[in-house]
Amino acid sequence: MGADAIAETGRATEVVVVGAGAAGCAVAARLADEGLRVLLLEAGALGVDPMISVPMGFVRTMTRQPLSYRYDAEPGPDAPSDDDHCSDITSTTDDDGTNAHGSAETWLRGRGPGGSTLINGTMYLRGESHLYEALAAELGPAWAWPEFEAAFAHVERRLPAPVPAADPGESPVLRALAGGLAATGAPFVPDVRVGGGPRAGRTPGTIRWGRRVTALALLRRHLLTGRVRLVTRRRAVRVLLEAGRAVGVVVRTPDGRHLVHRAREVVLAAGALESPQILERSGIGDPDRLASLGITPRVTSRAVGEGLREQRGATVKLRIHDGLGMNERLRGPGLRGTILRYLLTGAGRLAGGPYDLVASVDSRGGRTPDLQLLLTEVSTGDDGLTPAEHAGLMIQAFPLVPRATGAVHATGPDPDARPDLRGPLLGDVRDRVMAERALAAAQAVAATDEVSRIAIDELAPAELAPAGDVAAAARYVRDTGGAIFHSVGTAAVGGPDAVLDERLRVRGVPGLRVADLSALPFHTSGGTQAVAMALGHLAGGWIANDLPHGRARPE
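^ that's the sequence the OP posted. Answer follows.
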């Protein structure tokens, strides 16, 4: 694409942010708080589907094309094989994007202002303080838990993210699960967001008055004042570089025109799957790879797109006594009553997220959790989405910090070309050990007296993964589990060979930053929505402090 094919927009701004998801909205809000003018570019259109506002509506909206992107994720080169005592990886992907037998998967991301907060399960987890301290040990005190804790508090005032109920409520299933968690070392606390250590509680969510709250709530005031200008349906093609400096973003409009939006500072917040591709289309990456794609290398940064980490879980399903749980209220005549209640009162099962309870568990019996458990009094059938015909409950378990890494790369200069996405699939033996520990933790809760009193039998994994069998657990997690869509690490912060420095600046490119989950070298939480928002908030402060004072330069 030649320079003569690019039209100038005729407007300059101080900062242009690419991507209006959780991180991008938080970055833009903080920059506007600091008095800067921000242009926020989003590839998707404004979502108008009424199901967006229904918290449990995500089971429908997450697969609707106008609201989501679908990425084909192939197993990475280090995926376990028969030699690792795991079955082969040869089957196809189910329609809902889950992994049927260790095959290629479909990964989903939100599309439109709000990003994945439009279609996620609303779960809002700050994470584990000791993991932020591990970040700080590598990256400096600006990445420590107290800094993130303050950022979370600010974000939660703006969203808001209400404090969940302080007890499991009247449901006999949830009371039994809370008792089972306490019996296995995760005591019930009023608010799991506060503090660290093993704990359990009601799952915090971005829900208010029975309706989903998206990341756009962070921008409400600034959109009204014009401090932030949101422009939708602008697909980022590449960052515009002049004399080695980022000076704007080239975008493509729905009618195929290419425009450039100029700014003093460019911030990529398109997410861990898209931001590295934008870098590569801009000529920033491995020069050999870029040249093979017909992209002129501009800046050598071989780690772009590498280091992809993804949390991966599997589920324990129990059949419970008839009349318990919520399955009956989510199918047939019961569902009609549940819908009517929601429409009239904004309450009931549709007004909450998919998981009623959440627990942070230390598989070693200590005080630093390494597992996340998500528990619900709903169980699904074979398709993974529709409530089962019998009463049931589910416990999903996954390691907080997976070790195996994958990669995502652009496949050419066209932003609509499918990326080369290689998902990490238990390729590190430590992940296979942790898969067994995660399943064991969930099964331990299911085996407690409290839960046994309401349970009939274990439907999964049952004989597929006997306790203590690491290879069987790895097979079960790989064959029946799936990615949780919590990708991090594809343009990570780190030492001199990392893509970003500790203030999220792209090494070798003045005026360009990446401020989303691409930057995290490893996970700090079992949920990424809250982390993305807090990181965006911190990034906005760093950018405002670093940006030279003065008005945006004219065209």
